[in-house]
Amino acid sequence: MNPMKNIRVEKVTLNIGAGKDQSKLEKGLVLLNTITNETPVKTVTNKRVQEWGLRPGLPIGCKVTLRKDRAVKLLPRLLDAVDYKLDERQFDNYGNFAFGIYEYIGIQGVKYDPKIGVMGLEVCVTLERPGYRIKRRKLLSRKIPARHVISKQEAIEFISKEFNVKVGAE
Predict the structure, then answer these.
(1) Per-residue pLDDT tens for 116-154?
(2) What's the CATH architecture for 3-84+96-131?
(3) Tens digits of per-residue pLDDT, 15-74?
(4) Three-state secondary structure string covering the chain
(5) Structure pTM?
(6) Cβ neighbours for 16, distance < 8 A, ≥ 6 positions apart
(7) In what order do the strands lie in the sheet containing 41-44?
């Protein structure tokens, strides 16, 4: 098989949406730090939504992104929290998938913290092949050719084989 066709995990992003509740946001920052041992960043609004009381620059959530080896090490613990089962609808047409964890205490190695309480989070996993750098580079950036893009079916096969995940309709 062509080595440029090998699929790998590019990054895992953990995300907690808090809305306008700043105390939930602070708890989310502590939780993400506990799970990943990395410093999370706050996400802010870009648009003004009068009905919801949102204005640009208002922090409404937090996230942390893990890349390469750290992402691959954390992913089995996160998949264990959902019993290694994903639905086909959780995959997009470009080889990425996302799933939610309802309670963080389901993640291996994370104990319940009464200061945080019960909180869930969203996990987004980005898959890529060697050569995807041409899309991100500064000079001579190009589109990824259609034959090189990871399809939904290829992503499902990769995650099933590499991480022993059962994918199917619920």
Answers:
(1) 888 889 999 999 999 899 999 999 999 999 999 999 999
(2) 2-Layer Sandwich (3.30)
(3) 998 888 888 889 899 999 989 999 999 988 888 888 877 788 888 899 999 999 999 999
(4) CCHHHCCEEEEEEEEEECCCCHHHHHHHHHHHHHHHCCCCEEEECCCCEHHHCECCCCEEEEEEEEEHHHHHHHHHHHHHHCCCEECHHHECCCCCEEEEECCHHHCCCCCCCCCCCCCCEEEEEEEECCCCHHHHCCCCCCCCCCCCCCCHHHHHHHHHHHHCCEECCC
(5) 0.88
(6) 25, 28, 31, 32, 61, 62, 63, 119, 120, 121, 122
(7) 41-44, 59-67, 8-17, 121-128, 97-101
123: nearest Cα among 100, 155, 94: 100
- The first and second tokens of residue 19, run together, are 């809305």
- Which residue in the block uniquely carries the two structure tokens 């700043």? 22
CA dihedral 142, 148, 151, 157 (to 10 degrees): -140
Query: Distance between CA 60 and CA 71 in Å, rounded?
Result: 24
Q: Is 19 left (phi over 0), alpha (psi -120 to 50) or beta?
A: left
